[in-house]
Design goal:
The chain is 51% helix and 13% strand. It has 287 residues and is of the alpha/beta class. The relative contact order is 0.17. The chain binds adenosine-5'-diphosphate. One of its GO terms (molecular function) is ATP binding.
Length: 287
């Protein structure tokens, strides 16, 4: 804890209390191992239970790449919460509380919410999870800027960062085809994607991910999944979030993963890349 206090420089951030609450939520598991593991920089290939605790992973990737889909599947497999900051923002929006108006305006322009607000939302979510006995996490959508990554490093230890990748024209089609069930919250996709690979890259095909009949009449489109806003989100991703790849590559934590297609092709390959293929087999056998 003392080591983390030394690392924190609240003056660099508009609200030191937002960082303090994030630190409170995340302090327990990893504080003591932060410095030694940062020095060793030898985190790949990943372990599903580093030092006997639950994983603390981050998913990076452009809008529409499928961070939510794969992070959510892995969270079930590893019994850790999948925490998507975009979902936290959407919960605020649907609450119609005092913050929702401000966030709606930012979201509809494809812009990022301030670090202070996003860290407060994340802290609140972690606190609620802790009260329910959750430990470990797969973060999706956080960090999204170098400053957020620095704050995260100041308060806890991240074991692994998975960077999901797809060509930009596929991402646009995927975002425009995305549909969400307004009742159960599950994501589907009506796009049927067939994109020729360029510069020696393989072709990419993805079948639509259709909803079951009980969701069909309740499908909605995210208000930020319009062509103009998706293009702006991609631009902002490249400007603000892409530098995170180098940040985590330098820490030896980045696992790059080019999605070969839809879920049926990509999921087994992702498990293989994460050394988790035998874990899924064991769970399926036990089920
Ligand atoms: N870490 C973050 N920092 C700032 N804003 C965020 C963050 N996470 C989510 N948001 C806000 O929530 C919106 C939706 O996030 P998300 O569902 O992760 O979108 P995407 O599909 O673009 O990855 C973002 O466009 C942004 O306005």
């Amino acid at each position: 804890m003392a080591a983390m206090n030394r690392l924190l420089k609240p003056s660099q951030f508009s609200s030191s209390s937002a960082i303090a609450s994030l630190r409170r939520c995340l302090s327990s598991a990893a504080a003591s191992e932060t410095e030694s593991r940062l020095k060793s920089r030898s985190c790949l290939p990943p372990s599903a239970d580093p030092k006997g605790r639950n994983v603390q992973w981050v998913f990076l990737g452009c809008p529409g790449v499928g961070k939510g889909t794969y992070a959510s599947r892995l969270s079930s497999l590893l019994s850790v919460p999948h925490i998507a900051t975009g979902d936290l923002v959407r919960q605020v929006l649907s609450s119609h509380g005092p913050l929702s108006h401000q966030l709606a305006e930012i979201g509809n322009q494809g812009k990022l919410v301030s670090d202070e607000i996003i860290i407060r939302l994340l802290s609140k979510r972690l606190e609620a999870g802790e009260a329910k006995g959750e430990s470990g996490f797969i973060l999706d959508g956080f960090p999204r800027t170098i400053r957020q990554a620095e704050i995260l490093d100041e308060v806890t230890y991240i074991d692994l960062v998975v960077n999901l990748k797809l060509p930009e024209n596929v991402l646009l089609e995927k975002c425009l085809g995305r549909r969400i069930c307004s009742e159960c919250g599950k994501n589907f996709n009506v796009a049927s994607i067939n994109v020729k690979g360029e510069n020696g890259n393989p072709d990419i095909s993805m079948a639509p991910l259709l909803s079951p009949p009980q969701c069909a009449s309740k499908l909605i489109t995210r208000s930020d999944d319009t062509e103009i806003v998706v293009k702006e989100r991609l631009r902002i991703y490249n400007e603000k979030s892409k530098p995170l790849e180098e940040f985590y590559r330098n820490q030896g934590k980045l696992l790059e993963f080019d999605l070969p297609g839809g879920i049926p092709e990509s999921w087994p390959k992702l498990l293989e890349a994460l050394n988790l293929d035998d874990r899924e087999e064991k769970q399926s056998a036990a089920a």
